[in-house]
Prior knowledge:
Elements: H1 6-17, H2 22-28, H3 36-44, H4 47-64, H5 68-83, H6 90-103, E1 110-114, E2 117-121, H7 153-159
Antiparallel strand pairs: 1-2
Helix pairs in contact: 1-2, 1-4, 2-3, 5-6
Amino acid sequence: MRKLSEQESKFAEEFIKTGGNIGKAAIAAGYSEKNASSSGNRVYRYPRVQAKIKELREQIKANEGYSKSKMIRELEELIIEAKAGDYPNFAAILKAKEMLCKMLGFFEPEVQNLNNYEVSIKVLDSRPAPPVPLIAEGGICPDSAESAKAIPPALTNFLELGEG
């Protein structure tokens, strides 16, 4: 494997600093603004850059004391807090559950070998759901009778708020 260039190293550092924004990382690393997205995507795929990003993430985890189990515990605590009170914060509950699912690999593509053919099943749409209004206990929006909407049973079960 070729040695990591100074610009590629800077890209990896900026990628971490920008929260994974390839375009901003490329610009900060000195790539052309005009071609930042394509240059960033190309550089991001290099195995040496991936290795540097992984190394930086491991350093952050070690320095900050983060682990998967610690993050899962903290997310579970946030879910409990979001469910407390008269008006559960559905947006916070959904976001925390989405993050838990990502951490546990539920959205990762599955690779299966069927009769010597490798099949990759991709998640086509992993965009977060639109914001959900706060819904009072009893299943209707407290704003007005005209805007009142029942909570879908599937959502109630997912959020573990309802019966059944």
